[in-house]
Write a structure and sequence with these properties.
By secondary structure, the protein is α/β, with parallel strands linked by helices. The chain contains 11 helices and 13 strands. Its main location: other.
């Protein structure tokens, strides 16, 4: 995030001409759940998708490359399915909740939403369901989507991903890991660092920074590395923060290595050069794609991925110097 996000970002409508035929439907890996899902959240009785409207509402900050990948995936699914897609984002929980209420007022046919701050989203999600609008989750809120009554969830189990990073650090003989959290209170980010701590046999500490202020991130991280030369690994929770951490390590004269969650084209280059050891790829493009496509499938064919009881996992996958070439061209195209 290069600049602080505005209080609210107006929705941007991304309209795609409806397909002339919907005879060919993609089949979800798991078929629809029980009949109550179809009656309570508006499953379609037929296959008419003309004018089907979907709102994708995230907690992403403006200018964050990660959320651009999510949006690109959603747009690709909308283009394929002939869906009228609206994307809106607000990093403030109250603002995001209002965006959901706005979508309800606009009588959309489906809502895909992130649950970074589940408590703030509980009431608007319940209102959407009461209005007969199917809601699916993506990216954040794997521990809350079922209790809030969402149909499906697409993302990474952050606790599992964090534990996998901890195991990898054990294999690298790391002694002291610094886990940098760029958004306090974000359940997904907290779960990542908790997962690292659970499996990592060395010392783990969390460092909280203000992710919307890159200069402050650099200042705080550089100072901590100078204070403790024993820190030999910096784990960041976003690709852009890993790139910043590389510079902070240099500025501090630290010998720490850098690893991260999430991936982008610039990070691919850093992995290739060895400046970043590895990245955990949760495939944000896929999250956006599946979220929109799942609502289309539900409305046209009653499909519920995971049967409404299990999340559809998009990660974790490790990208290292040995396998980075396999994803490099997709990252260059802006889809990984």
């Amino acid at each position: 995030m290069n600049t602080p996000p505005p209080p609210r970002t107006p929705a941007r409508s991304l309209r795609v001409a409806a397909l002339t035929s919907v005879a060919l439907l993609l089949l979800a890996g798991c078929s629809g759940g029980d009949s109550s899902l179809g009656s309570s959240q508006g499953a379609a009785k037929g296959a008419d998708t003309a004018g089907l409207k979907v709102a994708l509402i995230t907690h992403g900050g403006e200018g964050d490359a990660f959320w651009e990948l999510v949006q690109k995936g959603a747009e690709a699914a909308a283009a394929k399915d002939g869906v009228d897609l609206t994307y809106a984002n607000d990093s403030d929980p109250a603002g995001q909740a209002q965006l959901v209420r706005d979508a309800i007022s606009e009588r959309v046919d489906g809502i895909a939403v992130t649950l970074a701050k589940p408590a703030a989203m509980k009431a608007p999600v319940a209102a959407a369901r009461a209005a007969g609008i199917p809601v699916v989750g993506l990216n954040s809120g794997i521990g809350a989507w079922k209790s809030q009554g969402l149909l499906e969830y697409f993302g990474q189990d952050e606790s599992v991903a964090g534990a996998a990073v901890g195991d990898k650090l054990n294999g690298l003989k790391v002694k002291h890991a610094l886990c940098v959290i760029h958004e306090r209170g974000n359940v997904a980010l907290e779960a990542r660092c908790a997962g690292v701590k659970k499996s990592f046999r060395g010392e783990t500490e969390n460092l909280y920074v203000e992710g919307t202020d890159p200069e402050a991130v650099d200042t705080v991280l550089t100072a901590r590395l100078r204070q403790d030369p024993g820190i030999d690994e910096v784990v960041t929770l976003g690709a852009q923060f890993a790139l910043d951490a590389v510079e902070s390590v240099k500025a501090a004269g630290s010998k720490a290595q850098v690893a991260t969650f999430d991936l982008n084209n610039d990070l691919v280059t850093s992995i290739r050069t060895g400046n970043v050891q590895f990245a955990v790829d949760q495939q944000p493009y896929l999250q956006g794609y599946l979220a929109v496509d799942s609502l289309w499938l539900y409305r046209t064919n009653g499909n519920v991925s995971g049967g409404g009881v299990a999340p559809v996992l998009t990660g974790p996958a490790f990208v290292t110097r040995t396998n980075v070439a396999a994803v490099a061209r997709f990252a260059a195209a802006g889809t990984r």
